[in-house]
Amino acid sequence: MSDIQNYIQTVALRDVKCYALHGYYPEEQLTGIYFTVDVVVTFTPNTDTENLERTVNYEILNSIILDEMKRTRKMLETVVKSILDRVIENYPFILTAEVGIKKLNPPMPGEIGHSFVQLKYTSLSSI
Question: Of 35-39, 40-44, 46-50, 79-83, which gets the smallest average pLDDT?
């Protein structure tokens, strides 16, 4: 029989596409642009793997992402931190978390696929 403490579970959402009004310049906050958001968390799974209350529910992660992306901010760093803080608040047992936001085709000279901002968290208990 395996000891569940030897496992690390990952739950993630990748490329959650959102149209939002984030941007430093006033015109960005008027016209908006598409973003994609990634959230990845790790934790030690509970032995009851069929219980949604004992895991990270990616529906909740999606709800956090969509809610925070609706709140217009100048800097993506602020949005990333807000999402990460809410994930940690909802799931204090997580070991690590990272949130990244890609701004698709940012309005700058040249052909740019995306700009990217990411923030990582590591629980002190996992160090």
Answer: 46-50
Report the Cα 101 to chain-centroid distance in Å.
8
Structure tokens given for 8: 């690390």
Q: pTM value?
A: 0.91
Mean pLDDT of 82-106: 97
Give the span between the Cα atoms of 53 and 9, in whole angstroms.
15
What number of CA atoms fall less than 13 Å from residue 88's CA on the CB side?
17
CB environment 1-30: b (16+ within 10 A), e (fewer): eeeeeeeebebebeebebebebbeeeebee
What pLDDT is recorded for position 126? 67
* Pairwise CA distance, residues 98 & 38, whole Å: 8
Angle value at C-alpha 44, between 37 and 6, nearest 5 degrees: 130
Amino acid at 79: V
Distance CA 63, CA 58 (A): 8
